[in-house]
Each structure stands twice: as C-alpha cells, then as structure tokens.
Amino acid sequence: MRDTARGIRLVVARTWRASPPRVMVSAVVTLLLAFVPALQVLALATLVERLDGEHTLRDVLAPLLVIVAIVGLANPVRAVATTLRMDADHPVIADLERELVLRAARTPPRGLARAETTAQLQKQA
C-alpha cells in the first residue's frame, strides 16, 4: 500500500511539473463532471414537478432543455477530460521510459545477465 501511495505521489508530482495548466483544467473538468448526475436529478425533478398540474409547454421547456443539454454534453466533456489527462500523462510516461532506458543502458552486461537486475528493470517498466 505504501508503494502504491509513493507511486501515485511520484506520478502526480511529475505530471504537475510537466504541465500545471493541463492538470488544473483536467481536475476542474473532472469535478464538473461529478456534478452531472445531481444536475440530471434536479432537472428531472423540476420537469416532473412542472408536469404535475396546469403547466404549459413553456413551463416545462426550460427543464427539458437542461436535461437534453446535460445528457448531450456529458460524453463530449468526458472525452475532453480524458484527452486532457492523456496529454498531461504523455510527457511523464516519456520521461519515465527514458529514465528506464538510460538505467538499462548504464547497467553493465554482467548486471543485465543477473535475474534480480532484470526483474528490477521490469518492475519499473
């Protein structure tokens, strides 16, 4: 568990160093997406409330349009958030792979022949 937490801290720190704006935008978009289910429930509750009684189409149109907008925009916004996260991750992945390749290149052939050395390199991959 400690190794996992250490790994998460390492990746988050490296991602932040690589692109703070992308990390911030990705975090904000992710938080906004967390509100989507609650907004859907509120809009649907408003729509149902307005359908009960003597309301006109004009009365139900606003909550209906909100529901359509939330449902219609949720997936594209999710795709944007995923793209932002991937864009922020690419430089970090490239740096980690470069460090691994350099470490392997600096290891003498005798060291690469040892099982524990290759296991350690594979663990980092």
What characteristics describe this protein?
about 120 residues, mainly alpha, rod-shaped
Structure write-up:
Helices cover 90% and strands 0% of the residues. It is rod-shaped and about 85 Å long. It starts with a helix and ends with a helix. It has 125 residues and is an all-alpha fold. Helix 3 (36-51) packs antiparallel against helix 4. The longest helix is centred in the middle third of the chain and has 50 residues, at 57-106.
Produce the secondary structure layout.
Layout (H helix, E strand, L loop, with lengths): L1 H17 L1 H15 L1 H16 L5 H50 L2 H4 L2 H10 L1
Outline of this structure?
With 125 residues, the chain is mainly alpha-helical. Helix content is 90%, strand content 0%.
**Proportion of strand residues:** under 5%
> Based on DSSP secondary structure assignment, what is the total number of beta strands?
0
Rg, nearest Å: 24 Å
Ends apart, CA distance between termini? 19 Å
pLDDT < 50 runs, ≥5 residues: none
**Oligomerization:** single chain
Estimated helix fraction: over 70%
* Number of helices in the DSSP assignment: 6
| Average pLDDT for all residues | 84
Q: Sheet with the most strands?
A: none
Structural class: mainly alpha
What sort of overall outline do the alpha carbons produce when their principal axes are compared?
rod-shaped
Question: Secondary-structure element order, as H and E?
Answer: HHHHHH
